[in-house]
Amino acid sequence: MTPSAHLDTFTIDRLPAPADMPELLFDLPSLQFPPRLNCASELLDRWVERGQGGRLCIQGHDRRWTYAELQAHANRIARVLVDELGLVPGNRVLLRGANSPWLAACWFGVVKAGGVAVGSMPMLRARELRGLIAKAEISHALCDARLADELAAAAADSPALKHMLHFNGGGAAGSLEARAASKPAAFTNVDTAATDPVLIAFTSGTTGVPKGTVHFHRDLMAACACWPQHVLRATADDVFIGSPPLAFTFGLGGLLLFPLAVGASTVLIEKASPDALLAATARFRASVCFTAPTAYRAMAALAPGHDLASLRKCVSAGEALPGPTRALWKEVTGIELIDGIGSTELLHIFISAPEHLARAGATGLPVPGYRACVLGDDGQELPAGEVGRLAVKGPTGCKYLADERQRQYVQNGWNLTGDAYRIGADGQFEYQARTDDMIVSGGYNIAGPEVEEALLLHPAVAECGVIGRADEARGQVVTAFVVLKAGVAGDAAMAQGLQDFVKQTIAPYKYPRQVVFRDSLPRTETGKLQRFRLRSEP
Prior knowledge:
This protein is of the alpha/beta class. A nine-stranded mixed beta sheet has the order 2-1-10-9-11-12-13-14-15, with helices on both faces. A six-stranded mixed beta sheet has the order 6-5-3-4-7-8, with helices on both faces.
């Protein structure tokens, strides 16, 4: 195996045992990577080296950087991390902020310095940040100044986190921008191995306990070589835009890795509500859009008020795409949505279909470089038409950070995504449902038990159970069944109070949009909550 460049081997030491690793496939010529690889060199530096440094690379509402300018900012940030904060290859760096050019520069600065980038959703509270920091033993953090309070509260109880710098704070003295401005614009990237960890992306499982998924430099370049090349087929003249945060691998790929892999440009906007995303698409003349089905449905109603002539490709992922949403978007814009399913564990989309093969009710076919099948409970492959567990293999695969759940996700070399699928007569994969307790609402994955834990912190709550209920607009909505303590009234004011409490305890998007008060909850004789009975209620 190629020697690692990591001096801090924390992540490498906590990778799954070889027997628990997924089987990897490198069948395509584009997947033959050299043993030494730093993905910042491939995604950013090579364009400058080829004389393309003057090309537009990244835009925001107040910034417009070329490839050479982004490279210079990233190099200076890498120098701050190494020279002033003592970063050594392998250290984990928490990145906290809404989508912006500066957040992208921070990401590349970490990668260039040989660090391991750990994204975090902007809306996470101190309680959730503590879990990420502890799990990954994060030592450094680069945080948007406007989000500093929650991180500071988490850091107070996180002894491993010793170094924090803020950006997007107006360039105040001591800020990341101020320190970076004094550094040279040149930096020699750490000579990492292709199999050195570069990213820990956190995802919530059904228990709500964070799972850190580890990805190598090679993994990020493999993701760029598969779905974007064979399904999306974007060009260097495209302008990418979308709503998913860079902390999600859907957003990291679609709004940073994939555009830069082909020499295109990307637009990073902090607030990407449907109306704001449409307005930004018109303003920046974006041509490729990434967002969730619920957003496309909302955008369809607003689209006639915006100039979308530049838009030519629209990608839907994050939750199942309803047929009516596909039809509505095409009716309004004339654009056939590119659907796809991916996972944090495999980094990005592995089943999809180009526009000419798209059909309602089908996600698509395995992306070149990947294989997929549907397995029965006995682990055997099922014939077309039968519903079973989706299993996937490819050049990327699940590598949980020190987590026993690795053996649940990876079995016999296959990645079991937790989705129920069947294969149609035309060979396309048709989504049926989730096989676990994850609630997918508005493109966000929300673990019911995590919401339950937050509710139980409220002094009026005796018991609770949280499930997802079908919803036309959001796919599912978080629904909480609550048993209150004696003497507490279960009225509208209490429901609102519980919702506000959850918003203050965990990320606001996880709050229960429906609160149902009950005298008791269905449980087994051993006391386990029977969520299936809650789901069966009208």
